[in-house]
Write a structure and sequence with these properties.
Elements (H helix, E strand, L loop, with lengths): L2 E4 L3 H12 L8 E4 L3 H11 L2 E3 L2 H7 L2 E4 L6 H8 L8 E4 L6 H8 L4 E6 L9 E7 L5 H11 L3 E5 L5 H9 L1 H18 L4 H22 L3 H8 L5 H11 L2 H18 L1
Parallel strand pairs: 1-2, 1-4, 2-3, 4-5, 5-6, 7-8
Antiparallel strand pairs: 6-7
């Protein structure tokens, strides 16, 4: 088996789906384990991969192993598989708060480890994933991991010192954006627009605006100014946002998010 997943929840499913859809690895070369029979059956039915309740079987058979369980289960899972992990395998973590040093200590031997921080838009192949390898991972292996994760969106290699910033700016930020879309839609409904239509207008406006930032290379402030005509509707809305502390609320919420991440 080329690829193994310990834990077959939403994020594992997103990664499996992206890899299979791009043809990078076939379903027959992927194995997944989960304590939940329903979880195993779901990924087997949807993606056609081999599944098992045995985490050790995944660790024994796969060349690259994704640890996709919740952070509180990492200690138990690592204790279960560490004796069958070899120095030729790659182990990829997606858990916030579990630093490379912590992972190395719990494996208790040299292991090729890659710490990552994906986000939920990976479920529609528009994710943003940070990647941070330990010293055992060589350049070719890192490039391979990046190629796997690029099947679910964009990927950047970052130093581990930036992971908490990554958690705040992309790992958790979909929640901020969803709140904004919901609020925009509520305002449109208050103006008489049907709710389903309001969600579509709001979501597409956010999607299109993000695409402009990424594709034009222009500063967000410049793009904002392009919309703000003198004495117009948009600059009035911007004035109210600034008065209500919109910008500061985002900055302070992200700082709080990063602080919690540091304490995990």
């Amino acid at each position: 088996m080329k690829l193994g997943f310990i834990g077959t929840g939403n994020m594992a499913g997103a990664i499996i789906g992206g890899i299979i859809k791009t043809g990078l690895i076939s379903p027959e070369e992927i194995i997944g384990s989960d304590i939940s029979a329903a979880g195993r059956e779901h990924v087997q039915k949807v993606y056609g991969v081999y599944v098992t309740p045995d985490n050790r079987k995944v660790a024994e058979r796969a060349e690259v192993i994704f640890l996709c369980v919740k952070p509180q289960y990492y200690s138990a899972v690592i204790a279960e598989i560490k004796n069958v992990i070899s120095n030729k395998q790659l182990v990829i973590s997606i858990a916030p708060g579990k630093k490379l040093g912590w992972l190395e200590e719990h494996f208790g031997k040299p292991v090729k480890l890659v710490r990552t921080m994906p986000n939920t838009p990976a479920m529609v192949r528009e994710g943003m994933t940070a990647v941070c390898p330990n010293d055992c991972v060589n350049k070719e292996e890192l490039e391979y991991v990046v190629s796997l994760l690029k099947t679910i969106g964009e990927t950047e290699v970052v130093p581990e010192s930036l992971i908490d910033a990554v958690v705040a700016v992309s790992g958790s930020s979909p929640a901020y954006v969803f709140i904004m879309i919901e609020a925009m839609a509520d305002a449109a409904v208050a103006e008489g627009m049907p709710r389903a239509q309001a969600y579509k207008f709001a979501a597409q406006a956010v999607y299109g605006s993000a695409k402009m930032v990424l594709e034009t290379g222009r500063h967000p402030g410049e793009l904002k100014d392009m919309v703000c005509s003198p004495a117009g509707t948009t600059i009035e809305a911007v004035r109210v946002l600034e008065k209500k502390g919109f910008r500061s609320a985002l900055i302070e919420s992200m700082k709080a998010c990063a602080e919690v991440s540091r304490k995990l």
